[in-house]
Write a structure and sequence with these properties.
five-stranded antiparallel sheet; Beta-Lactamase; Alpha-Beta Plaits; alpha+beta; flat; 4 domains; 28 helices; membrane; transmembrane helix
Length: 776
Amino acid sequence: MLRIRFKYIAGNKRTKLILVLALCISLCIGTVGLYSYSQYRRALDTELNTPNVELLQINLDVSNRAFREADGRAVDVSFHEAALGFISSQSSDRESRSASLQAYLQTMAEKPDIHSIEVLALEGRSRVSSLGGYPSGWSGGAPLEGWMAELNDKPLLVKRRSAGGVQGAGTTELLSLVRPVRQNGQVTGAVIVNLDYDRLFSKLYTSSANYLYVYNLDGELIYPKLNLPIPLSGMEEVTGGLDVRPFAYVRAEGQEYMANQTFSDVTGWRLISLVPVEKLLKNAKLARDMMLLLSLLSIAVGCAAVYSYNYAAFRPLKRIQRLLRPLQRDAAAQGDLYDLEPVIGKLVEEWHRESLVARQSLPELRSKFLEDLLARSLGAREAQAKWEQYFQDWKPGDLTVFVVSIDRYGEWASRFPEEDRRLLKYALNNILLEALEPAWRAVSMGDPPDGAALLLQPKDPDRAAPEREALSREAARIREMLSQYLSLSVSAGIGPAVPSVTQAARSLAEAREALSYRLYAGYGSIHARPSAVLPAEKDEPSGRGDAGTVEWLSALAAGGSEACAEWARSWTEAFRTGGVRPSSVYREVDALMEELLRTATALGAVPPAELADYTPGQGATLELGDVAALLERCLTAMARELVSRRQRREYQIVQAMKDYMEDHLDGNIGLQEIADSVQMSISSVSSMFKEETGSTIYDYLTHLRIGRACRLLEETPMKIAEIAQRVGYQNENSFIRAFRKVKTVTPGRYREGIKSSGGYADRPNPRSSGISEDLP
């Protein structure tokens, strides 16, 4: 009805002119209002955002400068002999050492921002302060135990606390910078530099129009501590809206703010500046709202004019609406049918066309529904509602999944372009539906890459069991049809019957599991696997593991094509004799092909085309003999490639350089010595080594040294300095830096991890990526 009304209005010149004028005027007014508002707001962002960012950066520099100075003094104290002597001494001797240490701390604390400096000894819980001297134990209200525990994992802490004043005269708000003192890799004490909270934050620059907040790494509010302009509950909305962005518009307590933030790389603090938007945009918003209101009023006036003009013209169409409802027919209305016959005919034709489109799109809607159901993107209620809507002619249960897969799919797909493959798979799906149509209701379940999957239901519920028994015979007939019409060799799997469409995924999984027995039965096989009968195959092959990997690696390394072929045949035959589940075999084949590709990449060899084009799951369409042939071709091709590669002069030179580095690992060797060992220039050996191994000489030598150092740390009680000498580092600090860069921990931590776990805490990285390092 509305569609006819709009067509009538569009066909009338007067109503068309009214609508065009009303819409144009409204569009012009609204566009001017929104454009003016956006320009004003953009200019406001530019003018205010930059000063706010600069002010935040100034405040950040002020706080960072103070903490850098405090950290510098903490570092000086932590390395001072008085502090180290106090921490490492016995508890009974510490009081005698505290006087000289206190005098030193008082000298270091002579700065207006520094309230006091303290030295803590973990053993015995002793402390010396520049203000309080040597008190007994850890006192003062600070959670020192928790701080010392945190220092095991963090190099620096910044904490806010309250401390008693001099001789108990009130309390002082402090910001404590805590730095650990380590001896032999262990935290034995700490240095605390206490900054005066009020004096530090009095140096920050603030504006009456801006609100400044400072948070620490744990999300705790540092500044301000009183008279919060926005409560903490509102600031949670602000921080959540900002996230990590430097600028955003946020809302808090029902009001909008322009927010800027920055982060300190020294303290980890988060500085947030807020400016209320309401004050800034009050007049601009009023002008915008007025223009939008005028545009809406112009549209309303235009619509009212159109409605009043065409009210009488649409009375006949209201009669049509009554005529199309049989319950509202009356004799007086029948006389108007002749005049309105063209309009009614048009309505009926349009309805017929739409219903035809709906019927034609129903198979696609059903397939999409099943795809969503299998992907678990539908809830139980939504799935049931769509089932009742799309499958009105189906019964509630007794559903079966039928899967057809093209044998040797990878080989078949390589013979056709993508468009032809789609066309052939479309023809395959249509043949399946046509062949099953007499006895089954059938719908396609998505678009599997290697064939087709159908959801079936017997049309005659009383003959459900006999029809299901005959499905295997029907599948054999379909296989012959596909071979005759499309020249396709296919295998099929039939899943068990399930009572509900929500369990179709289980029937599909069982059908695919049944189909996987093509591995042993051969191509063109058909398998039905009821869920009540599950064979007791093993999930893993017997005898497979590191020994099997060593065999094919050894055959590959030796370049023996016959040995590689023999290994491929025996490896695959072990699956058949061991009674391994086919799905497990296919996973093993995918894993082996991936390992072969990684090995070829690591060795710098060109992988054979079958290996380079292999995709996970491609082996699932092959029988066991073809799996063995595929592995045999890949292994022998790689073996031939390695033999030819090793005969090259560059390979021999690179091996000579590796041997030289192995033999002189404890010496102070560099690029010059390595180049001299093969009588070539530095630039030549660097480029040759990079091209052959994919790694630089420096990286290779570093990983070689760190690998040997890891073994010495694991197997010997040698000191770190001795191990550094044994692996070619003349300076212990250089060794520690290199070890931490490669292993992400220090040598001491690495050895502690091994002792605590009773095994390897972090196995040494291989000298270069890939399994090729296992090759001789």
